[in-house]
Amino acid sequence: MNTRTETDFTPVDADLYAKAFQLLDPDPTPEPAVPAASAAPAPVPSGLPAAPPVRLTGPVEKTLTDALALLDTHGWARFTLVHPEGARCSIGALRAAAGARNAAYCDAGNLLLDEARRQHGKKWETIPSWNDSHTGAQVRSVWEAAIRRAHHMNI
């Protein structure tokens, strides 16, 4: 499933992300893409009321939500991917939540960085540089806004 959609995101240099991901994960093992279940509703027998549609959480929203839950559970850190006591920086939480450098991980990272740029200026080139330069409250605000955007975009 391709989670990419047309958005008004600031264009991101793909080579920049590839280099950053290579530094964070020098030996990536890509996960095979898993096709999404059909979203077509089952036919409703006549005379029965139709059930309201069920909204499934998209892979980007799930990755962001799971990563924020990790930050809430284990703590947020600056200047390190994973603190010895378990706290994580934003990219560390994102990596742990995604489990692999898959499309949802990349799209969630792009969305998070785009939201960081919206709230804190366009100068941020990486999630770690933004994460390390802000307070926990500022970082959380970006995470929450990115999750809302992923939900709104249904990705």
Fold and architecture overview:
With 155 residues, this protein is mainly α. Helices cover 50% and strands 0% of the residues. It is built from 6 helices and no strands. Helix 2 crosses helix 4, helix 3 (90-98) packs antiparallel against helix 4 (103-120) and helix 4 packs across helix 6 (136-153). The radius of gyration is 17 Å and the shape is elongated. The mean pLDDT is 82.
List keywords for this structure.
single chain; 155 residues; elongated; mainly alpha; 50% helix
- Proportion in β-strands: under 5%
Large-scale geometry:
elongated
Give the total of beta strands: 0
Instruction: List the helices and strands in order.
Output: HHHHHH
Briefly characterize the structure.
The protein is mainly α and 155 residues long.
How are the elements arranged and paired?
Elements (H helix, E strand, L loop, with lengths): L13 H11 L34 H16 L15 H9 L4 H18 L6 H6 L3 H18 L2
Helix pairs in contact: 2-3, 2-4, 2-6, 3-4, 4-6
